[in-house]
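This protein record is not my work; I was only asked to verify it. The record follows directly below this note.
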Amino acid sequence: MYRFLLSRQWAILTLLGLVMIPAMIRLGFWQLHRHEQRVANNKIIAAALKAAPVPLEAATRPGFTVPHEDLYKAVTAHGRFDTAHEVVARHRTAGNGGGERAGGQQIGYHVITPFVLDDGSAVLVNRGWIAGGDDPTAFPSIPAPPAGDVTVQGRLRPDETTSATGIRDTHGLPRRQIMLISSTKVAGAVPEQLVGGYLEMVSVAPAAGHAQPALVPEPDHSSIGPHMAYAIQWWLFAAMVPVGWVVLLRRERAEVLGRRTKAAEEASGRGPDGDAGDGGGRPAGGSATVAV
């Protein structure tokens, strides 16, 4: 009855199903892990935004790698801005630094200004977003920060990398333009020793009396994304594979039974309507003509 399972077609179909089931289950768990990471990340961000700021010197130092648990930690720093070594990060939009305050989806720059601390070291400060000019090769006009000694409050961020951000670190850029905000990559252009990571500026005191770059709004920590829904979908797909295999099996079995029944009827001399003949083609129930 089930000899058809040994056919090449069914062997390929069965093998494909056996490969697809674990693959889909694995993809479901991958999406589940991404969901769990998103939830855990949201908790870290929410706790960091609610916490009281700490001195920058207590959170990072030269050569330090900002750990994930310190993501967006609120810190304060006292010193002065070094605009002579200011750079801009290219191809930045409100989406990767914004809200409507930071220019919507218009492409522009993030202003990265070294901030010299009281101990002589420095930290990169992302002062916010500005619109791009007509000439992408020219250094844009940037509003000056407050002069003299000031106190900056910001969110601590780890140095950007291509693997973490998806931003390609393009070489041969115009002067004073960068792709990744990274203390290690900017270190050669700044005379002071840079601490690890950088700050997203939240406020500065005393404040500047003129227009400034649009501050980078705080990160969203309420959305969990579609990862859980994707995980459930993959698991449903995995469950549908054996169900579909059984449906096809039953259909093939019904076709085999149909062919065997038809063959048996033809072998026994039954017509399509189930009436048996006399083996010579005459109806079994008819009257015979006797030759005299």
Notes: The beta strands are 54-55, 74-81, 87-92, 108-117, 122-131, 150-157, 177-178, 194-205. Residues 8-50 form the longest helix (43 residues). The two ends are 53 Å apart (CA to CA).
